[in-house]
């Protein structure tokens, strides 16, 4: 850890025998009184000469920096990447040598909201990983969805302006359910595939630990012999993929603004380290040419059924940041940071990103020296002749600040020299491929197919997932006020699936508009199970949270057994009671709960159990908070386990028996699942 950062905690200790270090100003001057500013007399004016006050307020006034223009709201963690497979046939990068461990910092984010917005809006999630490799930093700056809204970086400012809060009224915060986003989206059919993902439960992750990550673009890899391959990167969560449902996500915003941040922090703090596998889809020019889509188009993915994902390593997050600002806020990712063996493709979206990130860091962090911040600095030797600039933190020695030089011949230190053998050489140099042509503002022909993969995605979803997608379109478009927008979007959807378009139109009460002409007729692609959340969920309690509602006279043995059983499966049991500090159990012992009923709504749990005596159940059935607690758990398709005595509360909450409603014996097994079959009985979906 960097020593300067310890300043203030490792200084001189107090002379009067206390263990505290001495509080000082930034100039190291001991502070005698941190409670009172300097005044001219007891009731007199504050004096300008009070340098302790001035310095403290001055620094405070400048604590904030510009937030990220996108992905402003984020949560980070340190960890390690371990290469688990010999990948040298494809890539020469040292971090992929089997058994190599590389420290990483990961930042997850939402896209549209500001830094202080909530964790659970319907939004894409960023999944950015900085690998501090022995050959320099590699940043894999991805999202939790494998495709993107647009094909060319020149449209990015338009997309983001349209998606963020509207320019004049400054709302809505952190959400796309408004006119400008859907105006843009409906005018840009290339957004259609990504819209399908965005309207699915992928944008409502249950936990940052339960979502996939994707590099999206095709990158290029080079092995030691100079052989090139294309690659797509995938992160696969060991806990499986799981999402919440819309009503739950909405209520989570009220229950806990920091739901994902807290979940990540607490999991790491308790030693339940989140893990992902890094997988790759490796392919060559010949494969690329044979596909009905262009692999340089970021609105397209490669189905895993056509090209299996090869697992080459494991990511584990095992340390929370010491300081949010110094690390999570100041971390600066740049897709242009690649190590020898990794290179870019000509994806026009990627190419634009290569400029944007470096540029934005200067405006966000205020200096071209942002790479010197501890969270951004490489962990391998770094030497060059770049000098000076605001906030220069290093003190370069000697006369050499240019190259070539012959200073070493005069006995001085001439500094570092280039190294072709170890340096990064662009992929097309390695292959001798020529990449030139007339200057044109065009896209390649296959980019014009905006619907084949959107349709493939739709057909890959199970009926519950399809209902969620159709309903989200209907919800978002119901928030749009300008009459031309919704019909235009539905007209585009007719190219994806007539049934989907009809369902959205019906839900909005709109006549089905004429089908929009497709700029290129879609082709049929086989559905892909890998694209469905439901087909890839893992029945696990590990990583999940179970809420246990108790009250006076709850059976002490049953409570202990249930807490143990949940823990034995790797789950986290949390006890909730009407009064947090004092619940008298059946054996007379007093139980402190982890949360009070009013402040701990059931949406923060994956499953709930009601351990209630007959009398408590009767009482709670008359309490709105308790009834709502159970009603929401049922409505959010969660397992509910209950003592027979709890029946009055179940009845009051309208809980009807199904596979997810069990006695205590069946509960732990039931708690590993969600009950999507229950949903059509509860709410009208499109
Ligand atoms: Fe970004 N993006 N982006 N983006 N992006 C930023 O960089 C940009 C795109 C992604 O946790 C910014 O440091 C352009 C795709 C993540 O710090 C900015 C284009 C993908 C993060 C920027 C894209 C991403 C960012 C804002 C279109 C998925 C958060 C602050 C060509 C592969 C990283 C910053 C973090 C952040 C530009 C499109 C992912 C402005 C121009 C596609 C995860 O530079």
From TrEMBL:
UniProt binding sites for heme: 68, 107, 156, 353, 357, 364
Cleaved signal peptide residues: none
Keyword Oxidoreductase: yes
EC code(s) of this entry: 1.11.1.6
Gene Ontology BP term (one): hydrogen peroxide catabolic process
Catalysed reactions, as listed in the record: 2 H2O2 = O2 + 2 H2O
Example of a GO MF term: heme binding
Record-linked SUPFAM superfamilies: Class I glutamine amidotransferase-like (SSF52317), Heme-dependent catalase-like (SSF56634)
Region (Disordered): 1-21, 398-438
Biased composition (Polar residues): 12-21
Keyword line: Heme, Hydrogen peroxide, Iron, Metal-binding, Oxidoreductase, Peroxidase
Location of the active site: 71, 143
Enzyme class: oxidoreductase
Names of the cofactor(s): heme
Domain Catalase core: 24-411
A GO CC term assigned to this protein in UniProt: cytosol
InterPro entries, per the entry: Catalase, Catalase_AS, Catalase_clade2, Catalase_clade2_helical, Catalase_core, Catalase_haem_BS, Catalase_immune_responsive, Catalase_large_C
A Pfam family recorded for this sequence: Catalase
Top-level taxonomic group: Bacteria
Family: Belongs to the catalase family. HPII subfamily.
Biological role: Decomposes hydrogen peroxide into water and oxygen; serves to protect cells from the toxic effects of hydrogen peroxide.
Protein's name in the database: Catalase
Organism: Sphingomonas ginkgonis
């Amino acid at each position: 850890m960097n020593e300067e950062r310890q300043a203030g905690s490792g200084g001189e200790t107090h002379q009067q025998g206390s263990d505290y270090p001495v509080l000082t100003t930034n100039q190291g001057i001991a502070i005698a009184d941190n409670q009172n500013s300097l005044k001219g007399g007891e009731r007199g004016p504050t004096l300008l000469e009070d340098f302790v006050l001035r310095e403290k307020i001055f620094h405070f006034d400048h604590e904030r920096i510009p937030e990220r223009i996108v992905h402003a709201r984020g949560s980070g963690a340190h960890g390690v990447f371990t290469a688990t497979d010999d990948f040298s046939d494809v890539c020469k990068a040292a971090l992929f040598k089997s058994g190599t461990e590389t420290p990483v910092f990961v930042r997850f984010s939402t896209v549209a909201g500001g830094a202080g917005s909530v964790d659970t809006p319907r939004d894409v999630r960023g999944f950015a990983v900085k690998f501090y490799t022995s050959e320099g930093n590699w940043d894999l700056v991805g999202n939790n969805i494998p495709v993107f809204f647009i094909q060319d970086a020149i449209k990015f400012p338009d997309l983001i302006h349209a998606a963020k809060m509207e320019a004049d009224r400054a709302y809505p915060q952190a959400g796309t359910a408004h006119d400008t986003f859907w105006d843009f989206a409906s005018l840009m059919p290339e957004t259609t595939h990504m819209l399908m993902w965005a309207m699915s439960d992928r944008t409502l992750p249950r936990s940052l630990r339960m979502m996939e990550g994707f590099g999206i673009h095709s990158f290029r890899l080079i092995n030691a012999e100079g052989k090139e391959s294309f690659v797509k990167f995938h992160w696969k969560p060991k806990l499986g993929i799981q999402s919440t449902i819309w009503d739950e996500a909405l209520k989570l915003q009220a229950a806990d603004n920091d739901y994902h941040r807290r979940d990540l922090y607490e999991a790491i703090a308790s030693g339940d380290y989140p893990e992902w596998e890094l997988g790759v889809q490796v392919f060559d020019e010949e494969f690329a040419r044979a596909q009905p889509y262009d692999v340089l188009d970021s609105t397209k993915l490669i189905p895993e059924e056509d090209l299996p994902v090869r697992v080459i390593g494991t990511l584990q997050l095992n340390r929370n940041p010491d300081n949010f600002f110094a690390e999570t806020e100041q971390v600066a990712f740049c897709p242009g940071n690649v190590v020898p063996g990794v290179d870019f493709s000509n994806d026009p979206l990627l190419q634009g990103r290569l400029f944007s990130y470096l540029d934005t860091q200067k405006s966000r962090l205020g200096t071209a020296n942002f790479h010197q911040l501890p969270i951004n600095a490489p962990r391998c030797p770094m030497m060059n002749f770049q000098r000076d600039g605001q906030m220069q933190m290093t003190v370069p020695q000697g006369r050499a600040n240019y190259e070539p030089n012959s200073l070493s011949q005069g006995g001085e230190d001439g500094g570092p020299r280039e190294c072709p053998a170890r340096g990064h050489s662009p992929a097309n140099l390695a292959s001798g491929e020529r990449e030139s042509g007339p200057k044109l503002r065009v896209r390649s022909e296959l980019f014009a197919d905006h619907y084949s993969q959107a349709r493939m995605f739709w057909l890959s979803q199970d009926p519950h997932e399809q209902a969620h997608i159709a309903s989200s379109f209907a919800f978002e478009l119901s928030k749009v006020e300008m009459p031309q927008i919704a019909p235009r979007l539905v007209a585009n959807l007719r190219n994806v699936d007539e049934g989907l378009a009809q369902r959205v139109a019906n839900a909005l009460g709109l006549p089905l508009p004429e089908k929009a002409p497709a700029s290129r007729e879609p082709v049929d692609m086989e559905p892909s199970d890998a694209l469905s959340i439901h087909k890839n969920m893992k029945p696990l309690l590990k990583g999940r949270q179970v809420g246990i509602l108790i009250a006076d006279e709850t059976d002490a043995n049953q409570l202990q057994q249930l807490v143990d059983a949940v823990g034995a499966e790797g789950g986290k049991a949390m006890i909730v009671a009407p009064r947090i500090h004092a619940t008298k159990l059946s054996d007379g012992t007093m139980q402190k709960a982890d949360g009070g009923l009013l402040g701990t709504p059931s949406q923060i749990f994956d499953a709930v159990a009601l351990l209630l005596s007959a009398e408590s159940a009767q009482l709670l059935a008359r309490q709105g908070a308790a009834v709502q607690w159970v009603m929401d758990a049922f409505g959010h398709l969660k397992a509910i386990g209950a003592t027979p005595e709890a029946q009055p509360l179940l009845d009051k909450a309208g809980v009807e028996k199904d596979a997810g409603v069990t006695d205590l014996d069946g509960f732990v097994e039931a708690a590993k699942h969600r009950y999507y079959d229950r949903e059509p009985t509860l709410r009208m979906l499109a």
